[in-house]
Specification:
Shape: elongated
Number of domains: 3
Protein name: Cytochrome c class I
Pfam families: Cytochrom_C
CATH architecture of the largest domain: Orthogonal Bundle
Largest sheet: none
Keywords: Heme, Iron, Membrane, Metal-binding, Signal, Transmembrane, Transmembrane helix
Organism: Trichlorobacter lovleyi (strain ATCC BAA-1151 / DSM 17278 / SZ) (Geobacter lovleyi)
Helix content: 55-70%
Distance between the termini: 122 Å
GO molecular function, one term: electron transfer activity
């Protein structure tokens, strides 16, 4: 009887310790999420550079979530169907950030409390969405930064040294690195801003570790990518507007010349 009571007492203590450790894990997970994940993911704020993670702990198993955080590259190589679906939707594989299994579990604990179905009322609110206003000046700045004719303020390498990109006045890049022509279309304002702010992709992580981009530099590059996407979709872009304006101006001059000849 004494042994049984001792066992029950130890078991109860263990349950209390496990239960009390979960909030601690969640608090630690919030710090990790803010540092490693928030640039691309929201919790209840919609998709960005990556999927909205609200309720993800209800949709996926803990083991799968640990794997996608710790070794997304191996999950892709294993042809995991859900990972393949995410890569297809967002256009790229989540980078391997070097997060340990222990830290991944802390992030998952935070996601369970911040974005779980039971806690949906306390989900992180959607950030205010402001659409980037593209101007010729911003495009010119972005183009200069991309090609390296203007250096980044903190000395980072120009984008063209690695990334291929086709745009009037820009060509080249390493064809083995991600092509940025479709990047804006896939990621949108929020995703592109998050990616440029975090620079978590493996090569970029090392190159820009102590050389982050400034907010103005990010805005200029986004303007370039957004204008490129608009041109390729035929929805306008500044080059299209310039061409239309030139044609209109030429038409007015021609009409004026014909009118003058007529009244002579």
């Amino acid at each position: 009887m004494a042994n049984r009571n001792r066992f029950l007492s130890c078991f109860s203590t263990l349950l209390v310790l496990i239960a009390s450790s979960y909030p601690v894990q969640a608090d630690q997970g919030k710090d990790l999420f803010d540092k490693q994940c928030a640039s691309c993911h929201t919790i209840g704020g919609g998709d960005g550079g990556g999927p909205d993670l609200k309720g993800v702990t209800e949709k996926q198993t803990g083991d799968w979530l640990v794997r996608v955080i710790v070794e997304p590259d191996k999950l892709t190589a294993a042809k995991d169907p859900h990972q393949a679906e995410l890569v297809k939707k967002f256009g790229f594989e989540m980078p391997n950030l070097g997060i340990s299994s222990e830290d991944a579990k802390k992030i998952i604990a935070y996601l369970a409390t911040a974005g779980g179905v039971a806690a949906s009322s306390s989900s992180v609110p959607a950030p205010e969405k402001t659409e980037l206003l593209v101007t010729p000046e911003l495009i010119a700045q972005g183009k200069a930064l991309f090609t390296g004719s203007k250096r980044f303020a903190k000395g980072g390498a120009p984008c063209l040294s690695c990334h291929p990109f086709t745009y009037p006045g820009i060509s080249g890049g390493n064809l083995s690195i991600a092509d940025l022509n479709k990047s804006y279309k896939k990621m949108g304002d929020a995703g592109m801003q998050g990616a440029l702010k975090a620079l978590k992709f493996p090569i970029m992580k090392n190159m820009y570790a102590d050389r982050p981009l400034t907010d103005d530099e990010i805005k200029a590059l986004m303007a370039l990518f957004k204008d490129s996407a608009a041109q390729k979709e035929g929805t306008g872009g500044f080059k299209t507007f310039q061409l239309a304006g030139g044609i209109l101006f030429f038409g007015l001059l021609l009409g004026l010349a014909l009118y003058k000849r007529r009244i002579r």
